[in-house]
Design goal:
Layout (H helix, E strand, L loop, with lengths): L2 E5 L3 H8 L18 H6 L3 H12 L5 E6 L2 E10 L20 E8 L8 H15 L4 E4 L19 H6 L3 E10 L2 E9 L2
Parallel strand pairs: 4-5
Antiparallel strand pairs: 1-2, 2-3, 3-4, 5-7, 6-7
Helix pairs in contact: 1-3
């Protein structure tokens, strides 16, 4: 298997990884940290997918996708922190005023897990942020040690995977997800 990670500019590929089986379903579409809370709550069903389709068509792609051949098998959301809810978070601190990018979601499709795709997604998200001029990338993964994590809540990533990618612990946070504390990890790109 050769995994190719590239910007998420093709909506059909994004839908294959993030979209619901039923178009009427109110799934995240990885918008909950990208949008102001009011807009996020207003978008329902097909409107959520339509919003993501527009993101793919205009401006910078909303993240990166991993492909195994032509099949999209994973997703990572990455964008300037200033464009996310992390810019205003009371639980995730800012360690300085650097205009960092946030990497907040890593998702691998069922049937493709355990093959290193999340590692490729983290590296691909970093490469994408670097190509867009990011001075650093931050992530807010679970600090779960050796404890198991519910796959539904593992979207934030695991500390050990970010450490493997060269990220360093920059700060503790007041955020807890699935019973595990989250930490702020950073990779300086300067």
């Amino acid at each position: 298997m050769t995994v190719d990670v590239r910007p998420a500019s093709v909506f059909e590929d994004v839908r294959a990884v993030l979209g619901p089986k039923s178009p009427q379903a109110d799934v995240c579409w990885c918008l909950s940290h990208r949008l102001p809370a009011k807009l996020n709550n207003e978008l329902r069903g097909p409107a959520r997918g339509a919003y993501v389709a527009e993101l793919c068509r205009t401006g910078a792609p909303p993240g990166v996708l991993a492909h195994d051949g032509d099949e999209p098998v994973g997703w990572a959301a990455v964008a300037p922190r200033a464009d996310t809810s992390y810019a205003r978070s009371r639980k995730i601190p800012h360690v300085d005023d650097l205009p960092v990018w946030s990497l907040w979601c890593v998702r691998v499709r069922p049937g493709h897990r355990g093959r290193g795709i999340s590692h490729a997604l983290i590296a691909g998200a970093v490469d994408f942020a670097r190509s867009q001029g990011a001075p650093a990338v931050e992530a807010y993964p679970l600090d779960n040690g050796d404890a198991r994590v519910d796959l539904t809540m593992a979207y934030a990533g695991l500390r050990k995977n970010f450490e493997r990618a060269g990220f360093v612990h920059a700060a503790d946070t007041a955020s807890v997800l699935a019973g595990h504390p989250r930490v702020l990890m950073r990779l300086d790109l300067r």
